[in-house]
Amino acid sequence: MKIVVFIKQVPDTTDVKIDPETNTLKRGDSPAIINPFDLYALEEGIRLKEKFGGEVIAITMGPPQAKEAIKEAVAMGVDDGILISDRAFAGADTLATSYTLSQAVKKIENVDLIICGKQASDGDTAQTGPGIAEWLKLPQATFVKKIDDIKEGHIYLESMWDEGTEKLKLPLPALITVVKEINEPRIPGLRGKMKAKKFEVKLWDNKFLSLPEEKIGLNGSPTQVRKIFSPPQKEPGRQLTVTENVSEIAEEVVNTFQKMGLV
Amino acid sequence: MGLNIDREKCTLCGDCISACPFAALEIIDGKLIVNNACTVCGICVDVCQEGALSIERTEAKVTRDNSEYKGVAIFAEQEKGNIHSVAYELLGIGRKLADKLNVELTAYLLGNDIKDINSLFHYGADRIVFAKDERLDHFNIDRYTEVITKIINKEKPEIFLGGATFIGRSLLSRIAVKLKTGLTADCTGLDVDDKRNLIQTRPAFGGNIMAEILTPNHRPQMATVRHKVMKPMRPDESRKGRIIEFGIESNLLTPVEFIDFIIDTSQKVNLAEADIIVSGGRGLGGPEHFDIIEELASLLNGAVGASRAAVDAGWIPYSHQVGQTGRTVSPKMYMAIGISGAIQHLVGMQSSDFIVAINKDPEAPIFKVADLGIVGDLFDVVPALIKEIKKRKGL
Ligand SMILES: Cc1cc2nc3c(=O)[nH]c(=O)nc-3n(C[C@H](O)[C@H](O)[C@H](O)COP(=O)(O)OP(=O)(O)OC[C@H]3O[C@@H](n4cnc5c(N)ncnc54)[C@H](O)[C@@H]3O)c2cc1C
Ligand SMILES: Nc1ncnc2c1ncn2[C@@H]1O[C@H](COP(=O)(O)O)[C@@H](O)[C@H]1O
């Protein structure tokens, strides 16, 4: 089995805050991380390789520093890693991103399975995976929570719907996106970390991929960010402070409920 | 094209570096450099006091004649003939957009035996394009993508909206790529400007910031909306419309083989549909204390929700989680008990009509969104509320 796992480097969302004084965004100093959902994708890829043999390749598209994400993936246990990086790819929305990533897959021969995270924590779109599948005309299953089996060129899996679980059988090659219910990602051990340290991340720029300008980066992106702003702050509501008067407060609260027709 | 830096004006103050959410700016060898993490969002341009930053945009070539694209369309999701309530919410916002643009609102419906098809008219649709086929009864990605793409190519709507549900997210992503158009996920606000552009507002970075997104040159302009974010209009039973049957001439081939669908029955009350939700967080201190949350919820005929901290601690199943990585809810009343109000929790519940917070920390961020905040120990307040409600109910 040859498995490609797509991972994205994202800022730690818990570390992005709005400065209430100036109303501007403040990014803390904590380093970028692998998109939390992609750790499940990596883990599943590595587990499948351990079970069925073959190789796992991690691919990310991002700025030069995103090679750290690939190194972390190597520390976890992937066999190879590629960073797609070029100024020409900057400003890509999900259409341009999924196009670029799909063309990278074409450079790798005989891929059996592509695994993406459910969504990236910076954009939260969950669009890239299905987008790649469409560019490559591959069968897809999204929000996969369990892989039951892989046999005779087919993958048997379970998708997590809002209302339940769907069991599907897809022919390979296929693309899946995974949710966090699927596994428990491993923590890289010492040996993995050593391997990652020495690992040379392959760099694919657009000289190598030679994709048409009008399909990549900002030019290939139909959506444009026009403005970014902080979420509107709500007017403060009524506040009651409990001292010894808890039963009075309860009375007042339940009065409010009753006025609203809730009790 | 992209971000330009005027190095004469740049004083290397670093304001833009800390303002950039994408870490796309750095100072290397005494020079400000923009790397390819840049999304050209323009935050840095706004914070630069020196006016050293500017954005240059080459207008993308309009390769298609957009004037043929007219009308607003929504995807009316159904499963086994039951129309998903997100369809009514989409009709609610779709109606507003269609009225502003002075065009018709159409619902695209794929399925077989649909219960109460006229409800789509009652909630705002002028037309229904109905692809009726047994093989469309249950969602299949390839069939749905094929049929909707064909409908769009024939109908040419300028705007096409879907729910950010399991089906909607997977489906619209593929359709957008097939049509080579833009798609904006999880919009919390939709409006149109005087150039008929759809103004799509959505949270980014887990709700820390909001982004306004346009799809100026491509049609249809596509967006998904989370369930419970938009309000449906009050149904009007006298509203009527036209049903246009969409003939299926293809074999609807799909490589994906359906094996089984198992409905999740573990949830007693459907969180997404509940009018009242009582949620507990880490402040409860342990799984055994969820019983007071449950008691209060059942007295109010509400559902039980939870913060991720409570779910991660294993106190309550994931299906109860509210927030960015859980459910989005928008009930008439949301009670947050022992929940601090982290941004990832707030994005999942702040559109509730009335928010009550109980927390012993007066500084807890949940009070910023609460309509009624009670500063106090939940182990005093919740039992007192239970007692009071029981008293009034004569229990
Ligand atoms: C990528 C990502 C996604 C996330 N998604 C979600 C999500 O979907 N949903 C979600 O909820 N979180 C989510 N989180 C986690 C979120 O950041 C917070 O960690 C979480 O919401 C905190 O839960 P909490 O408020 O219950 O716990 P805490 O933050 O620990 O708050 C507990 C509160 O209880 C109060 N308290 C304690 N004892 C009492 C008492 N006796 N009486 C009254 N008050 C008391 C405390 O004052 C405190 O304010 C996400 C985080 C990340 C990074
Ligand atoms: N720049 C990228 N490089 C590699 N993989 C990506 C990139 N962007 C998105 N992905 C993959 O697509 C998934 C969904 O991302 P998104 O559509 O941005 O929510 C992620 O979990 C990754 O697996």
Task: Kindly describe this structure.
- The complex is a heterodimer of chains A (263) and B (395).
- The model of chain A has no long low-confidence stretch (mean pLDDT 91).
- In chain A, the strands form 3 sheets. A 9-stranded mixed sheet of chain A has the order 11-10-9-12-8-1-6-7-13, sandwiched between helices. Chain A has a two-stranded antiparallel ribbon with strand order 2-5. Chain A has a two-stranded antiparallel ribbon with strand order 3-4.
- Chain A has helices spanning 36-52, 67-76, 94-107, 128-136, 190-198, 206-209, 246-259, and strands at residues 2-6, 9-10, 16-19, 24-27, 33-34, 55-61, 80-84, 113-117, 140-151, 154-160, 164-171, 174-178, 202-204, 224-229, 238-241.
- Chain A is built from 7 helices and 15 strands.
- Helix content of chain A is 29%, strand content 30%.
- Chain A has a single domain, classed as Rossmann fold.
- In chain A, strand 9 and strand 10 (154-160) form a beta hairpin.
- With 263 residues, chain A is α/β, with parallel strands linked by helices.
- With 395 residues, chain B is of the alpha/beta class.
- Chain B folds into 3 domains: 2-56, Alpha-Beta Plaits (2-Layer Sandwich), CATH 3.30.70; 66-245, HUPs (Rossmann fold, 3-Layer(aba) Sandwich), CATH 3.40.50; 271-393, 3-Layer(aba) Sandwich (Rossmann fold).
- Chain B has 11 helices and 22 strands.
- Chain B has helices spanning 15-19, 43-47, 85-101, 119-122, 141-155, 166-179, 290-299, 308-312, 343-346, 366-369, 378-393, and strands at residues 2-5, 25-28, 31-34, 53-56, 72-76, 78-79, 82-83, 105-111, 127-132, 159-163, 183-187, 189-192, 198-204, 209-214, 221-225, 242-245, 257-263, 276-280, 303-306, 333-337, 354-359, 372-375.
- In chain B, the strands form 6 sheets. A 7-stranded parallel sheet of chain B has the order 11-15-10-5-8-9-16, with helices on both faces. In chain B, strands 19-18-20-21-22 form a 5-stranded parallel sheet.
- In chain B, helix 5 (141-155) packs across helix 6 (166-179) and helix 7 packs parallel to helix 11 (378-393).
- The termini of chain B are far apart.
- The model of chain B has no long low-confidence stretch (mean pLDDT 91).
- Classes of the chains: A alpha/beta (263), B alpha/beta (395).
- At the A-B interface, strand 3, strand 4, helix 3, helix 4 and strand 9 of A face helix 2, helix 5, helix 6, strand 11 and strand 13 of B.
- The complex binds flavin-adenine dinucleotide and adenosine monophosphate.
